[in-house]
TrEMBL record:
<keyword id="KW-0949">S-adenosyl-L-methionine</keyword>
<dbReference type="GO" id="GO:0032259">
    <property type="term" value="P:methylation"/>
</dbReference>
<protein>
    <recommendedName>
        <fullName>Precorrin-6A synthase [deacetylating]</fullName>
        <ecNumber>2.1.1.152</ecNumber>
    </recommendedName>
</protein>
<dbReference type="InterPro" id="IPR012797">
    <property type="entry name" value="CobF"/>
</dbReference>
<keyword id="KW-0169">Cobalamin biosynthesis</keyword>
<dbReference type="InterPro" id="IPR000878">
    <property type="entry name" value="4pyrrol_Mease"/>
</dbReference>
<dbReference type="InterPro" id="IPR014777">
    <property type="entry name" value="4pyrrole_Mease_sub1"/>
</dbReference>
<feature type="domain" description="Tetrapyrrole methylase">
    <location>
        <begin position="4"/>
        <end position="223"/>
    </location>
</feature>
<dbReference type="Pfam" id="PF00590">
    <property type="entry name" value="TP_methylase"/>
</dbReference>
<keyword id="KW-0808">Transferase</keyword>
<dbReference type="InterPro" id="IPR035996">
    <property type="entry name" value="4pyrrol_Methylase_sf"/>
</dbReference>
<dbReference type="GO" id="GO:0043819">
    <property type="term" value="F:precorrin-6A synthase (deacetylating) activity"/>
</dbReference>
<comment type="pathway">
    <text>Cofactor biosynthesis; adenosylcobalamin biosynthesis.</text>
</comment>
<keyword id="KW-0489">Methyltransferase</keyword>
<dbReference type="GO" id="GO:0009236">
    <property type="term" value="P:cobalamin biosynthetic process"/>
</dbReference>
<dbReference type="InterPro" id="IPR014776">
    <property type="entry name" value="4pyrrole_Mease_sub2"/>
</dbReference>
Length: 250
């Protein structure tokens, strides 16, 4: 039986690791570290650093593997993602076989928490071929929580709902019906520019929780250009960026 531990590690701050996560990492036979390519090399480095910081059990082994790249040219987006997830599952299966055979505890460090815009759980469902697999999730701090903490704001108005969505959906579909608060992730294009800014406040953050963190907030009409410029400079300086924001209508 393979015990697969999917461990939420928070958003890049080693202090985001919970005691439960630290215990789980130390209970593993093998920790798999994905390499995502040069531009995100520092994230693999961060995973390694987290392991070095918290591992006290000398029996835990680390193994790195290269993540397959998604075929962005596939015109059928869903089919392309499906094929990509199959390819990742193949890579995990091989790394697990090489590392522990068909029995052992294998850990994967998941950015933030595996429940939020993350395919690790879906991929885990495809891995078990030729062995039994049991999946355990250790929750982590999400980028949304890191953002609200950095701005010291609640995500919802009293008794009110909110929606978490993507930059693409905000651009394509506009402000979602039935809510005054939306959190936007996976937005490479500053999609807040596509909505009517009147009466809207933005709380934006890049690299939230990390040493590089930048946060800005205020009326969207005043902050929009400033965020676009800040984002572009930060991306150029670091070679990569992850950002997230909350929009609230009065
Ligand atoms: C694939 S999703 C993963 C989300 C992750 N599972 C979580 O719990 O936050 C990646 C998106 O999360 C957001 N994100 C993750 N880490 C972030 C960080 N440190 N600062 C700002 N946004 C972050 C960005 O919107 C990014 O495009």
């Amino acid at each position: 039986m393979i015990e697969l531990l999917l461990i939420g590690i928070g958003t890049g701050n080693p202090d985001h690791l919970t005691l439960q996560a630290i215990k789980a990492l130390n209970s593993a036979d093998l920790i798999l570290i994905p390499r995502k390519g040069e531009t995100k090399a520092d994230l693999a480095e961060l995973r390694r650093a987290i392991c070095t910081d918290v591992l006290t059990n000398p029996a835990v082994r680390l193994a790195e593997f290269d993540l397959p790249v998604r075929d962005a040219a596939n015109p059928d987006y869903r089919a392309g993602v499906d094929d990509w997830h199959d390819a990742i599952a193949d890579t995990w299966r091989q790394a697990i076989r090489d590392g522990v055979g068909t029995a052992g505890r294998v850990a994967l460090l998941v950015w933030g928490d595996p429940s939020l815009y993350d395919s690790t759980l879906r991929i885990a469902g495809r891995v078990a071929t030729g062995f039994e697999l049991n999946v355990t999730v250790i929750p982590g701090i999400t980028s949304l929580q890191a953002l609200t903490a950095s701005h010291a704001i609640p995500i919802n108005d009293i008794g009110a709902p909110f929606i978490v969505t993507t930059g693409r959906r905000l651009r394509d579909e506009g402000w979602p019906a039935g809510v005054n608060t939306i959190a936007v992730m996976l937005d490479g294009e500053c999609s807040f520019r596509s909505i009517d800014a009147k009466g809207v406040t933005i709380w934006w953050g890049a690299y939230v929780g990390m040493a590089e963190e930048i946060i800005l907030s205020g009326p969207l009409s005043e902050m929009s250009d400033r965020i676009v410029g800040t984002r572009a400079r930060a991306r150029a300086d670091h070679g990569w960026i992850m950002d997230i924001y909350i929009l609230r209508r009065a």
